[in-house]
Amino acid sequence: SYTGSPWCTSLAGTQAVTQTGTAGGTYTAAPAGLTINAGTGAITPSTSTAGTYTVTYTIAAAGGCAAFTTTASITITAAPTATISYAGSPYCISLAGAQAVTQTGTAGGTYTAAPAGLTINAATGDITPSSSTAGTYTVTYTIAASGGCAAFSTTFNVTITAAPTATISYAGAPWCTSVAGAQAVTQTGTAGGTYTSAPAGLSINAASGAITPGTSTAGTYTVTYTIAASGGCAAFTTTASVTINAVPSFNIAGSTDPTGCGTTDGTITLGGLSASTTYTITYDDGVVVNLGAVSTDG
Fold first, then answer.
1. Residues 6+ apart with CB under 8 A from 222
2. What's the distance, CA 169 to chain centroid?
3. 261 and 202 Cβ atoms separated by less than 8 Å
4. CB under 8 Å to 31, separation ≥6 — which residues?
5. Which of 236, 259, 274, 276 could disulfide-link to 164, CB 3.0 to 4.6 Å?
6. pLDDT in tens, the chain (298 residues)
7. 128: three-class secondary structure by DSSP
8. Residues β-bridged to residue 189
């Protein structure tokens, strides 16, 4: 008998037989693949092929007695081994559906993940990013101890990336081209994006989103904030509209002071005015003319 059977192929050294009765017999095994000492019956699992064998102990015929045989069955178990991987990692949290694991080697193990937060199927290893929490996880594939072999485990790191999101706005807009200094953007959400504007003519800082009206051309612009694709997530963009107004023009026609002080009043043509605003004109000599509310542009 072999009390240690089954043995794992990872087991080092020889494993002895327990034999009672007539000594001096020889040991054989069938089928082929078992490393056995014919004289002692000792077995070496690490150099044997996994399988189940019949060991026969034979005492040759002698002294008028026929040959005698007895048998014992033993099992050598293959040591479990496996690898796992997730080729799509990192995954974006916006990704729908389950993402499969690639597993090679011994099947039938179970999957776990740490820390908590990753949605994983314990039997198949499939991961569901959309119901997971963003973070990096260690997935462990474990094959339980059996057949004389110890438990086996292997790991792979998986990353779930939060989908980028952001909003931008310019609380001070519209601005006049006479406004000095840079005007800041209000940005919420994912940082690290870049700013662009269209059409050409707006002075904007690509990194900070700040706008300089004084060096911009009057017009209405679309400012786009772009977060580049990364971590399995697609690029993200959001926009805001910004208007830069030109300083209203005051063109004086006529040869005399249009305040009524001269013999003939001149004419002032005003552009870019609002009908709801009261305007004044101050001349170099300090005279102030109150225009009142204008009814038309001109």
1. 197, 198, 239, 240, 241, 242
2. 28
3. no
4. 51, 53
5. 236
6. 999 999 999 999 999 999 999 999 999 999 999 999 999 999 999 999 999 999 999 999 999 999 999 999 999 999 999 999 999 999 999 999 999 999 999 999 999 999 999 999 999 999 999 999 999 999 999 999 999 999 999 999 999 999 999 999 999 889 888 888 999 999 999 999 999 999 999 999 999 999 999 999 999 999 999 999 999 999 999 999 999 988 765 544 444 444 334 444 445 566 666 666 666 666 655 666 666 655 544 3
7. coil
8. 166
**Location of structure tokens 């949605």:** 119
Residue with tokens 């107004």: 245
Strand boundaries in the chain, DSSP class E? 7-8, 26-30, 51-59, 68-77, 82-85, 91-92, 102-105, 110-114, 135-143, 152-161, 166-169, 175-176, 186-189, 194-198, 219-227, 236-245, 250-253, 267-270, 278-282, 288-293
Cβ(145)–Cβ(137) below 8 Å: no
Buried b or exposed e, range 25-35, using 16+ CB within 10 angstroms: bebbbeeeebe
| 178: DSSP letter | T
Q: Is the peptide bond before 45 cis (omega within 30 degrees of 0)?
A: no
Q: Which residues contact 11 (CB under 8 A, 6 or more apart)?
A: 45, 46, 148
The structure tokens listed for 205 are 């800082």
Return the structure tokens found at 254. 């006529």
DSSP state of 120: B
